Amino acid sequence: MKEKLNKIAKDTNIFLKKYLKSQKKTDLIIPMTYGLLPGGKKIRSKILVDIGKIFRINYQNLIQIGAAVECIHAYSLIHDDLPCMDNDSLRRGKLSTHRKFSESTAILAGNSLLTIAFEILSNHSLRLNNKIKISLVKLISECSGHSGIAGGQYSDLRFEKKKISLKRVIEMQVKKTGKLFSFCCMAPVIITNKKNYLKKFDKIGSDIGLLFQIADDLIDYSGNTQKVGKKTKKDLKKGKATLISLLGYKNTIKYSDKLKLDIFKRLNIFGKKAEDLKNTINYIIARNK
Ligand code: GRG
């Protein structure tokens, strides 16, 4: 699993470096590159490749789509660290982008990474027909905006220090984290044009995203800053609405184990072809153990 993840991370970074090099040499390229590279685990790209394997999608196309996802993900992390959001000075083991440069630079570098994602998906180097490219751009826009990452972040900030129901916390986490995973799960289905599978993979994606967010919250609860490259034990201080704050630590682990088994059941119809995806899901859960 780790070897496959490392290869995908390496190939994605090669693509991104080459892509940024082909751009005009503007002043913003430096903070954009700082926030984007060498980047994190590339778990979203791994899921794209895993599902691409089920539907036999061309690997290089998946790397290019994953690169677009990583740009949006990096953008969300840069903005998430800003003083008006989570106010973090450390990200991926180094100073967060606004601490290294300035707040306005971080906002603009983040915005530019968002628009570069659309460029990458509509670029001629992506060997897909235009109809599919438009569908991918449309879906990634929906997953990033008010009904996706941005909307989830809005709720997350509004929910601080309030008593929020489990249903609303899950809805918030599915938007904030799950929607980008849904995109990764649905993109290969869009490419194969197997429309009857779209809903199934949308739900599998949001459930994987929820599992991922739970693992992230468990790491924050019990984790170590040096190991994860960012500050931990913040959620409790900020009064964040999480599954841990509602269910407690042990019940949150039980919830995540049950959710994992439920996803695995839905993947069983794909037999051995879903093995890589199952390994990735196990890796996501094992991160907090
Ligand atoms: C509209 C894209 C966009 C952003 C503006 C700030 C914001 C709204 C949203 C924040 C979303 C956010 C930071 C969600 C948390 C998701 C999460 C658990 C991130 C950590 O992901 P990892 O562990 O990070 O994959 P690495 O560093 O490995 O890439």
List keywords for this structure.
289 residues, 15 helices, binds geranylgeranyl diphosphate, Farnesyl Diphosphate Synthase, mainly alpha
Could you write a compact summary of the structure shown?
With 289 residues, this protein is mainly α. Helices cover 72% and strands 1% of the residues.
Give a description of the structure:
- By secondary structure, the chain is mostly helical.
- The chain has one domain: Farnesyl Diphosphate Synthase (Orthogonal Bundle), CATH 1.10.600.10.
- Helices cover 72% and strands 1% of the residues.
- The protein is built from 15 helices and two strands.
- A two-stranded antiparallel sheet has the order 1-2.
- Strand 1 and strand 2 (94-95) form a beta hairpin.
- The structure holds geranylgeranyl diphosphate.
- Geranylgeranyl diphosphate (GRG) is lined by residues 39-41, 43, 72-73, 75-77, 79-80, 85, 92, 144, 149-150, 153, 176-177, 213, 216.
Topology:
Blueprint: H1 2-21, H2 29-36, H3 43-54, H4 59-80, E1 90-91, E2 94-95, H5 97-100, H6 103-122, H7 130-144, H8 149-158, H9 166-192, H10 198-222, H11 225-228, H12 234-238, H13 243-247, H14 249-267, H15 275-286
Bound molecules: geranylgeranyl diphosphate (GRG).
Geranylgeranyl diphosphate (GRG) binds next to helix 4, helix 8, helix 9 and helix 10.
